[in-house]
């Protein structure tokens, strides 16, 4: 991170391609420091990977980068073995977590990590950049929890940008916690909730048959995007209720909730 000399720099990279037998091979499955991607048992032609945290973090001053590339004809699901816990570091700098995802035509990626928890005193910036081909399929789930049980939240700045066939269909920012612009916790923001999440689903058939906008209960909305994609935004009082809402949305969109 700019202006920060201390902290851990860690990268993980995954590349998926067809294996020629109806499945998916992983010619690149690399990680260092606290980022350890591990292949697990898949289903059908889909390869499954879990990202295992080999140490606590990110801490203040750390910079993590995770990338996945899914080539034409391949299918990949990526999860994490546990929640990511952002913690304050010994220095004054914040932490950074960058995610870079690429899905080719006729490829599929389901990016389904566990929750990100921003502990008291943490300062984390998360950026997610996604490129999907015109006939690619993609599911992303993001869940952010502000503080552990009974704890004041840390600061979180999050941005997600999704392009389909080179066209931006979503560019969304969220900033909350101490030091965030006023009103983040008010009626126009999180409304007193401490968990927020979103799903992004890209499917080619949405171009001809867009998903209709609707509410899911009182705290989640399904919104079609300007392209073959849909966004689900939700808030909840805790991580368990948030996951239940997002699983309901996945089922509504024809995507069975994952079992890892």
From TrEMBL:
The keyword Chaperone applies. It is found in: Cytoplasm. Pfam families: UreD. InterPro entries: UreD. Keywords: Chaperone, Cytoplasm, Nickel insertion. Required for maturation of urease via the functional incorporation of the urease nickel metallocenter. UreD, UreF and UreG form a complex that acts as a GTP-hydrolysis-dependent molecular chaperone, activating the urease apoprotein by helping to assemble the nickel containing metallocenter of UreC. The UreE protein probably delivers the nickel. Belongs to the UreD family. This is Urease accessory protein UreD. The gene is ureD.
